[in-house]
Write a structure and sequence with these properties.
Elements lengths: L4 E6 L2 E6 L10 H15 L6 E6 L10 H4 L7 H13 L2 H9 L4 E5 L2 E3 L1 H8 L2 E5 L3 E3 L13 H9 L1 H10 L3 E2 H7 L4 E3 L4 H13 L3 H14 L4 H16 L2 H11 L10
Parallel strand pairs: 2-3, 3-4, 4-6, 5-7, 6-9
Antiparallel strand pairs: 1-2, 7-8
Helix pairs in contact: 1-4, 5-6, 6-7, 10-11
The structure holds ligand LUIYFFEK.
Length: 265
């Protein structure tokens, strides 16, 4: 496995670190492959109750490696089209797996989240950002259009008009603006980002795993479902959650007026 991406598992949390700080963690082929492999590993590991995605160094991720694109500019247009289409398709299993994972995925963002870096953060379930973080969809500034699910999640999160502004202009905006737009859940002082991310992850680790997984799947499904299908799915999910040990513990703790002690079973 390449050093471009790292994973550490501890106390129920899998932390994935994008690790090319010398280029603001710009994407490499090895990083895409590693991300896919780590997420597949997590999908099969019930001991992981939460995933944290972060960047090494001062930034989250600057997106595709634009300096690495240089040599491609010399290729004939049809060859460029072929190569980029192939490369970008390799990102898709990563996005699908992140959305399909039973565990919540938290993006912990410091510095820049640009291009695919912003797409990736949007594909996470929650985003916690340092007050000094900044965001740009960027693609239009290098003469291209969004990828990696950016054009799927952006209008769903911020609404169509704001999505048009962010995508068509590619301007930078700060963490407070990102929070006001709903792109970020919490903004925290940069020096507390790690600790606040750990606190949020610990809440998921201590939570009712099956209910959390069912809730995540329900919200994902609602983006494309009719009301009728969604209601059917809600009924199934509630009943499935109610068949867990954590549900029995939750209602018992409520009756006993104490905090529940969930085990994830
Ligand atoms: C917003 C920025 C990310 C950061 O801005 P700032 O803090 O002002 O820093 P800079 O001075 O601009 O940059 C510092 C150095 O880092 C280099 N750098 C920055 N971004 C990249 C990058 N994406 N790839 C390679 N290197 C990068 C920059 O050149 C500086 O280096 P030097 O000091 O040597 O000069 C800002 O930098 C920015 O907007 N970056 C570009 C964002 C972008 O266009 N991203 C790519 C869009 S395409 C994409 O994301 C996705 C894919 C996915 C997969 C396959 C194929 C295509 O694209």
């Amino acid at each position: 496995m390449s050093d471009d991406i790292l994973m550490n598992k501890a106390d129920g949390v899998a932390t994935i670190t994008l690790n090319r700080p010398e280029v603001l963690n710009a994407l490499s082929e090895a990083m895409v492959q590693g991300l896919g492999e780590f997420l597949t590993d997590i999908e099969g590991d019930p001991s992981v109750r939460c995933v944290v995605l972060k960047g090494a160094g001062e930034h989250f991720m600057a997106g595709g490696d634009v300096k690495g694109f240089g040599p491609l500019a010399k290729l004939p247009p049809e060859e460029r089209r072929r190569r980029f289409e192939a490369r970008i398709h390799k990102l898709h299993p990563v996005i699908f797996t992140m959305r399909r994972l039973r565990q919540p995925v938290i993006a912990s963002v410091q510095g820049a989240a640009a291009g695919f870096g912003l797409s990736l953060a949007m594909a996470c379930d929650m985003v916690i950002a340092a007050d000094k973080a900044f965001f740009t969809l960027a693609y239009v500034r290098i003469g291209t259009s969004p990828d990696g699910s950016g054009s799927y999640f952006l209008p769903r999160i911020v609404g169509m008009k704001k999505a048009m502004e962010i995508a068509l202009l590619g301007d930078r905006f700060d963490a407070a603006t990102a929070r006001d737009l709903g792109l970020v859940n919490y903004v925290v002082p940069a020096e507390t980002l790690e600790a606040e991310t750990a606190k949020l992850a610990a809440r998921f680790v201590a939570g009712p795993a099956r209910a959390i997984a069912n809730t995540k799947a329900l919200l994902n499904a609602s983006l494309g479902n009719s009301l009728e299908s969604q209601l059917a799915r809600e009924a199934w999910s509630f009943a499935d959650s109610a068949a867990s040990e954590d549900w029995a513990e939750g209602v018992t703790a409520f009756a006993e007026k104490r905090e529940p002690r969930f085990t994830g079973k």
